Amino acid sequence: MDKTKILLAHGSGGRLTHDLISKYLVQSLSNPLLNKLDDAAVFKTGGNMAFTTDSYVVSPIFFPGGNIGKLAVCGTVNDLSVMGAVPKYLSLSFIIEEGLDITVLEEIIQSIAAAAKEAGVEIVTGDTKVVNIGKADKIFINTAGVGFIPEELDISGSNAQPGDAVIVSGTMGDHGIAIMAQREGLNFKMAVESDCAPLNGLIADMLKACPRIHVMRDPTRGGLATTLNEIAAQSQVGIELDEESIPVKPAVGGACDALGLDPLYVANEGKLIAILPEEFAPKVLSAMKAHPYGVDSAVIGRVTAKNPSRVSIRTPLGALRILDMQSGELLPRIC
Amino acid sequence: MPAPKQTKRFAFALSGVVQGVGFRPFVYQLAAKHRLNGWVRNTSAGVEIEAEGAGQALDAFSEELTSLNPPQSVIKTFKQTEIPLTGEEGFEIKPSQSLAGRFQLVSPDIATCTECQKDIFAPRNRRYRYPFTNCTNCGPRFTIIEDIPYDRPLTTMKNFKMCPDCQAEYDNPLNRRFHAQPNACPICGPRLWLADKTGTELSNTDTIAEAAKLLQDGQILAVRGLGGFLLAADATNPQAVATLRNRKRRPSKPFAVMLANLEEARKYCSISKEEEHLLVSPAAPIVLCRWNKESPVCPETAPGQNYLGIMLSYTPLHHLLLKEINKPLVMTSGNLSEEPIAKDNDEALKRLCNIADYFLLHNRPIYSRYDDSVVMYEAGEKRVLRRARGYAPYPVQTHFKGKEVLAMGPQEKNTFCLLKDGYAFVSQHIGDMQNPETLDSFEETLAVYLKLFRSKPEIIAADLHPGYIATALAEEWSDRLDIPLVKVQHHHAHIASCLAEHGCDDEVIGVALDGTGYGLDGNIWGGEFFCGGIKQGFSRQAHLEYLPLPGGEAAIKKPYRTAVSYVYTLLGEEGLGFFKDIDPEKLDIIKSQLNKKLNSPLTSSTGRLFDAVAALCGICRVANYDSQPAIELEAEAKDTEFAQFYPFELDLDKGIYLIRLKGILEGVLSNIKSGKTAAYISVKFHNTVSQIVLDTCRKLSAESGLTKVALSGGVFQNRRLFRQVIQQLETEGFKVLTHKEIPSNDGCISLGQAVIAANQGGL
Ligand SMILES: [Fe+3]
Ligand SMILES: [Mg+2]
Ligand SMILES: [Zn+2]
Ligand SMILES: [Zn+2]
After folding, report:
1. pTM of the predicted model, to two decimals?
2. Residue B589 Cα, ligand 1 centroid: separation in angstroms?
3. What is the value of ipTM here, to two decimals?
4. Neighboring chain B residues of A320 at a CB cutoff of 8 Å
């Protein structure tokens, strides 16, 4: 028996499972609700509760700027936070491929603990399953989370109003490019790190500056372009962006240029889009810039009544271009 | 005096282009000539006539109706029935009538006729120097029509009340301006003025002279014309042209030049008899003519080109302006690159204020946007390359008379097509659907066509490409109208369109040499050989072998990427030694991209093969406009002729011939290494592509027995290749079908979609 590897028995519910949970999980993630090890976490609620879940199957599981564990916490924290919720409790569920190094699992759990601590959330329930080699790719994680939304907030993808300003909290495409470079072994001159981060702190500061934020979203899969298209359709408004004002790190821009990708369609894991009445934009923007996760924040466009559900972008050449949803693979449309 | 029993009465119903072309005055005069009584009127279906008189006279009248009809008219149907006598006296032109659900063909706009030209240059004429002069033989039509029948109240001239003089002309059947709907004069008609960038009118006594002076000084003018604004600059002033390029963000795509007349045109180009006919035709399109490079039209006008796009003045305003300045003028559509042409004053002042220094404005509203058409005379025929002013909305006649089809067209060079009662109304050139203003213009124009032609689509057709905006639009329309959507493969549409233009129902060998189109297998097609027809469907029999396009669209914009990919994929690592001047890091990334198949769709495109060869020759490493590498590669060949070609192979693979390109790439590289000129390589490469077409058609013909070949796709705008392919195929005994009225580029896609959908729609 190789004690350095995850075995099928680690997921069987027996002794090894118990050891794994108590030794690695409870110790690192310790909190009163989790420590009880009951079948369910029990807590009091009140007011509007937000509830979300997400599964993480990223490959590679370690990448510059984070790993799958940090991602699993930040992703769920961010999904709650952009709804205006203060994230509180998370569930954590592993599907592990037999043979994973236990030290790898340990490192992932440490990142989970660190991210949870930074975000001020508690992991209150969880599960671990082990599957045969080839049935999973090293490790998959599911997290669900709950949070509570203050009464006065009304944030939704359908709330964008003509005249609103569109703000992003930082550079676009960092996560997707970092993952791709790592996975495909691409040697870019400048290294790119994932932006993976919990945004609830930044959001709290933004809401302090302006509780009347209409829309918040984290532009993850499909990137900024896809998320804005969803918002434009949900709110039945047009969105017009100014390409030059959209922050993109030179390294990411260079990598995208080399690969023929558009950073506006590349995933982010520590960025948000906020849409709010134009008059509050300066105040919110300065609050954002004061926060470590918002230093590169920028107003990137405005909401229009014209062309409902269409997102367009003014290129540096001055022409407008439709920035549409991309379906699957990027296939050339120009002749 | 004829006996009363010989007196007869006939009712005539004519359709086609019979309104706005002087048809009723013609009928009136014809009736007078034959001493007939009765009346004529316009309806929304065409022209109706009742005529009563001597049998013989009626016979002559009937014959002359279709043999002496006005030059701009086209008679599509002619019906004659005998009806009871009424005994009415005189011949009358009756008010127009609208018939529910009936439509008629609408005349395109027509270049100023010679008589109107005389009017504006005759100091004693009341229209001396009047820029909006027109008559029943010329002037705006489609661009001012809001609805049919074509009568002044249904045009944008409705707000100009004619003065007594104009009204008298309008009412006099013997006058050239009888029922000329846009009839006007300086007293009662539209007005021209000059404004600065802020829209403030400049007070001057002679607007035209002032405008000419500004152009003379190297300023850029936005000139409101028939279908929209044109940007004008002195074509002999390199600085003015460079400024225009700069401001318009159009670094190298050729500009067209407008000239006062044929005589002037000959100073700058050598013009064949056929090109001359095209230049002076009522459509007055831009004609690509052999450019005399020693002429004073500066090279910046059309960098790297052997042909210059020229047109003659086609409105009185142009005539006056060009006469005044006495120089060739660059006239390019009033837009930023990729946007549609601006048509309204306010719109132009807003959109063009960073391009134009001054604005030549007028107050005759433009209802429909309309670019200048572009044509060439090649391989014995007129070839329309961009179809708009002077041609659209004239339809292509087909035999599909069942359900009405609306075909949404492609992504770029978009046109849409309405198929109704056998008429395929291919819209004027709309442009790049990725541009939001173009998309708005698409919707506006579509609304106009649906109204004018009383169309209620029952089938929607669109391209198969999952990312085309026109296809997304088609899905919306199909849902909203609850009618079926037929998706058509891009190159099937290309070939079907060529066949539709020829009314050809037969099975043919279809050769689609093109840029990019989404294939049935999800790859990007563009070097395709089919057997089949509109009714039979198409089956792919041969294609260029698949090669990766690293970065997708990025490779199209930066052809060196395609060159790297083709060389690396076909010749391996050592081939890359060729690219010493490309940043090694970039090269490395492209290589890993290819190895890992990252964002590298596979393509069989002919356009991309041209790109790769052009880039290898060092001709065009970055493309600033569509097809630039291929255009410059062709230009490089000049008039050089010889017969050698590079080796290629036809490889039968699962029943389909793959055209192997390794020999071509090897040959090109070894020619470059041994110091052959780009001109030599270009000629040899053109020969190769032509030989590929010939060899493949031979093989397919031997197997299928088919002897007709239809050519389509943007690559056939390459004149050298087009000529050569036709010549080789015809020598071999093939019957070759080519595009004439409809472009072979993606402007033809909507027509192909429409006829395929109509056929599949169960007719
Ligand atoms: Fe095409
Ligand atoms: Mg989620
Ligand atoms: Zn005239
Ligand atoms: Zn008048």
Report:
1. 0.93
2. 30
3. 0.91
4. 339, 435-437
